Write a sequence for this structure.
């Protein structure tokens, strides 16, 4: 089997592709042949030791995957060889083969390709959790999505559209904004050249109901100030590298709320609720109500470059690694 290995916490390019014979399969586990592994912003943080959880090297990065069950342990009766599956694993996905506990696996409907299955778990679960469990988004409301051409951003645009919201996508380049329009955004803001607060208020008829923020930095306060009465700022992440401090008077004014979202910790602590949430997402994709972007694919050997591209803001949409044969 082939695995991408982080031997020391360092720049993404320092990961190496290694070959090793597979060990024996534990009777309680399932062996999955990985057909695609999604690349997420967080993977590049893990290998540099910059994420809040700091695994000791050596480890294999990669937080989500799709594949086919190759073998099942003697004690497993919930899966059979040939089943198509996906899994959120935190670490370990950038490889050609992985052994997992059966309850980590989710079945993939026929209608969803391996590459989409490998890249929709984290982004759509986060977006779905944020809008349906935290912001309680309602049909007819408006949402401004920051970093809208990124993984979580595009998923949020799609989920918001499916829930009947008016969507405004904010991103930093023309090509990213074009992708958002192609993916169904009603309006767009180039926050590298336009004033986010002013444009968000104009485009939403006086103020947004929801601002969704996976970026952080100065845009967060501008987003908060663009909210209307009872508006909600949803704090998702800090891809810009800057964790903003917010003026509390801007929360008080207009009865606004600031909502934190930590889908990963919630999913870990509530596996059954998360499995139900994932089923909601997959059923909506299967019915054609959600339409995850088809990712760009790269070979496993390009894991370092793929993580670097995400960290340097060069990716529009999703990336995945394909181990091949
Ligand atoms: N809270 C949760 O449960 C949860 C779950 C999943 C992910 N997250 C977090 O959400 C954030 C986004 O994740 P993602 O997978 O959507 O990442 P992504 O695909 O890389 O997208 C992030 C977006 O942020 C923007 N950005 C602004 N400044 C940046 C910078 N200096 N470097 C990189 N990107 C920058 C970019 O858009 P523009 O160029 O258009 O500005 C980029 O498209 C990450 O911080 C991640 O850890 C949180």
């Amino acid at each position: 089997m082939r695995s991408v290995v982080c031997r020391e916490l360092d720049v993404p390019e320092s990961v190496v592709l290694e070959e090793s014979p597979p060990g024996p399969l534990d009777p309680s586990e399932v062996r999955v042949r990985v057909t695609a592994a999604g690349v997420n912003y967080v993977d590049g943080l893990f290998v540099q030791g910059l994420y809040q959880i700091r695994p000791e090297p050596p480890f294999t990065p990669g937080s989500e995957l799709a594949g086919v069950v190759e073998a099942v342990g003697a004690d497993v009766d919930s899966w059979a060889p040939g089943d198509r599956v996906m899994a959120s694993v935190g670490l370990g996905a950038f490889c050609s083969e992985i052994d997992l506990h059966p309850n980590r696996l989710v079945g993939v409907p026929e209608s969803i390709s391996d590459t989409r299955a490998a890249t929709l778990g984290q982004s759509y679960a986060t977006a779905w959790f944020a809008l349906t469990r935290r912001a309680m988004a309602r049909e007819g409301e408006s949402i401004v999505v920051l970093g809208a051409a990124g993984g979580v951003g595009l998923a949020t645009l799609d989920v918001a559209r499916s829930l009947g919201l008016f969507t405004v996508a904010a991103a930093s380049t023309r090509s990213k904004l074009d992708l958002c329009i192609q993916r169904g955004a009603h309006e767009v803001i180039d926050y590298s050249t336009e004033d986010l607060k002013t444009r968000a208020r104009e485009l939403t008829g006086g103020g947004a109901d929801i601002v969704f923020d996976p970026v952080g930095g100065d845009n967060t306060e501008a987003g908060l100030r663009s909210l209307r009465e009872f508006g909600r700022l949803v704090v998702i992440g800090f891809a810009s590298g800057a964790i903003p401090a917010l003026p509390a008077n801007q929360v008080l004014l207009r009865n606004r709320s600031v909502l934190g979202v930590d889908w990963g910790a919630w999913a870990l602590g509530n596996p059954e609720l998360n499995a139900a949430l994932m089923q909601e997402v997959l059923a909506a994709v299967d019915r054609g109500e959600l339409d995850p972007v088809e990712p760009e694919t790269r070979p496993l050997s390009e894991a370092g470059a793929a993580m670097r591209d995400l960290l340097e803001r060069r990716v529009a949409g999703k990336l995945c690694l394909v181990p091949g044969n």
Notes: The radius of gyration is 20 Å. Residues 40-42, 122, 126, 147, 149-153, 171-172, 176, 214-215, 236-241, 261-264, 310-311, 313, 315 surround NAP (CB under 6 Å).
